[in-house]
Design brief:
- The complex is a heterodimer of chains A (121) and B (182).
- By secondary structure, chain A is of the alpha+beta class.
- Chain A has a five-stranded mixed beta sheet with strand order 2-1-3-4-5.
- The relative contact order of chain A is 0.18.
- Chain A has four helices and five strands, in the order αβααβββαβ.
- In chain A, strand 3 and strand 4 form a beta hairpin.
- In chain A, 36% of the residues lie in helices and 21% in strands.
- Chain A is globular and about 45 Å long.
- Chain B is of the alpha+beta class and 182 residues long.
- Chain B has six helices and six strands; from the N terminus they run H-E-E-H-H-E-E-H-E-E-H-H.
- Chain B has helices at residues 4-17, 49-54, 71-80, 115-125, 146-153, 161-178; strands spanning 22-30, 35-42, 85-91, 95-103, 130-137, 140-145.
- Classes of the chains: A alpha+beta (121), B alpha+beta (182).
- Chain A binds chain B through residues 1-4, 6-8, 10-11, 14-15, 20, 22, 30, 32-35, 37-38, 42-43, 45-46, 49, 52-58, 60-64, 66-67, 69, and chain B through 1, 5-6, 9-10, 13, 16-17, 63, 67, 69-71, 74, 114, 117-118, 120-121, 124-127, 149, 152-157, 159-166, 168-170, 173.
């Protein structure tokens, strides 16, 4: 799994499976302003990518955003499931990520104790 | 920030907030002239001379007039502490280049840190961004570009679990090779 040739082979395998979804997936957004980065946003992002890889989550999109003015509650991580409220979790650490992924992203149950904001989409 | 790779993430986020669609990151480490240079070039909206001078002064900042934050003043302080500098070149409407230099062997120089996670984050969390990364260490070089990856992947996203695994291994091996291998 270490060369560009490996990536080309991987792509051929994945295309053959023909089960890719491009629309309607869940979105995870991590705050990457200076405040977020200083609070550990990259480590949280790493934990998110590790969970996606280890749980083989194929319909999750990951995005970063800037400072939204809640610097004291960083790291902020949003989960937006299609057709549902966008939920903002605050003071997220890498250790919280598996729980948020399992409960909310996979099973649709909001982790209420960590919620700091909600936006109707 | 404890790692230069976190400052790098911050610089790239600045570029994204300036609406850049293309960002080039260069990391140049050269023991012969004892320099470590970090250069981020973008095609964002750029700044006029007045703003350019403001962004490295932490005491004149107000968040309503400036979207940059404390990242650049922090990086300027850390580079100056290491016999270096932080330079900003910007042309309104064309883009910005930020270059930071550190004395490579300076005792206070923060470690580069985890470049694998910084590059992975930038690539995966900004799928529309044309991002290139060039890293050289005493003449050994490694480059990766998002366009090249998207050309190979077609409609398979970089966030596909198997692609993430590949990306992690690819970056880990190639960045380690710059320093003589794992």
């Amino acid at each position: 799994m270490k060369t560009v040739e490996d990536l080309k082979r991987l792509r051929e395998q994945l295309q053959g499976q023909n089960r890719l979804r491009h629309e309607g997936g869940t979105e995870i957004i991590v705050g990457m302003g200076t405040c977020g980065i200083a609070a550990g946003a990259r480590q949280v992002m790493t934990a998110v990518l590790d969970e996606i890889a280890s749980r083989k989550l194929e319909d999750v999109k990951v995005r970063q955003t800037g400072c939204i003015g809640m610097c004291e509650r960083e790291v902020l991580l949003d989960v937006a499931r299609p057709g549902e409220q966008r939920i903002t979790y605050g003071r997220v650490t890498p250790a919280d990520v598996p729980k948020i992924i399992e409960e909310h992203v996979i099973n649709g149950r909001i982790v209420e104790a960590m919620v700091v904001g909600r936006v109707d989409i | 920030m404890r790692e230069l790779s976190l400052h790098i993430l911050d610089l790239v986020q600045n570029s994204i907030e300036a609406n850049a669609t293309t960002v080039k990151l260069e990391v140049i480490e050269d023991r012969s002239d004892d320099r470590l240079i970090i250069r981020v070039t973008d095609n964002g909206r750029g700044m006029d001379e007045k703003i350019r001078q403001l962004v490295i002064d932490p005491f004149i900042t107000t968040r309503t007039t400036r979207r940059i934050g404390l990242g650049l003043p922090l990086m300027e302080m850390s580079s100056k502490r290491c016999d270096g500098y932080l330079h900003i070149d910007s042309v309104p409407g064309q883009g910005t280049t930020v270059e930071a230099m550190y004395r490579h062997s300076h005792l206070d120089r923060p470690p580069l840190g985890n470049m694998v996670e910084t590059i992975k984050t930038i690539l995966v969390a900004n799928s529309e961004l044309h991002f290139t990364y060039h890293h050289s260490v005493n003449g050994r070089t490694f480059s990766i570009s998002s366009l090249e990856l998207h050309d190979i992947l077609g409609d398979v996203p970089l966030s596909h679990p198997d692609v993430l695994g590949w990306l992690h291994d690819y970056l880990t091996v190639n960045i380690a090779n710059l320093y003589g291998g794992v």
